[in-house]
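Hallway conversation turned thread

IA: we were arguing at lunch whether anyone had actually written out TetR/AcrR family transcriptional regulator end to end. Turns out nobody had. So, for the record, here is the sequence (189 residues) and right after it the structure tokens. Reply here if something looks off.
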Amino acid sequence: MASEGLTMERLVQAGAELADEVGFEQVTVSGLARRLDVKVASLYSRLKTSQDLKTKIALLALEELADRVAAALAGRAGKDALAAFANVYRDYAREHPGRYAAAQLRLDPKTAAASAGVRHAQMTRAILRGYELTEPDQTHAVRLLGSVFHGYVSLELGGGFSHSAPDTEETWARILDALDALLRHWPAP
């Protein structure tokens, strides 16, 4: 492949595909060069470091996730919105495990503030307003939801639930029911 035709968008997309195949932690500029059949030096003229590539993959993943969540939330409220939000994250992690891992990358404050991560927070808070949560309970609930969703998805992807019954779909549905009940009856401080 001619390196002249490699746009930043194409490099990041190829990096994201590589992350899904080999794992986000294994992504490097040299690995991307091998994938694209170009010289490493030609990529370093566009990418500063492997960390630069990983940051760009993380930004892509956050954008893709935010777009999917926004589409799923349209016209929904309450438990329907909560379930749609959660299912998008779970489905995305299953479809794109490397990108999902990338979305967890810690970004510097300036990059984070300009990323689609802000949209994620806004959408989460919009769901929580449907449960009539105000600050600081809203922030506590954002952290709870993120922890439960990420924890479950990570364990599931790692095979942590594959050895026992009941089916993970049943457990996931029960978790969403429990979260909905908790959010409707949020404990007073």
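OS: looked through it. DSSP finds ten helices and no strands in the chain.
IA: good, adding that to the notes. The two ends are 60 Å apart (CA to CA).
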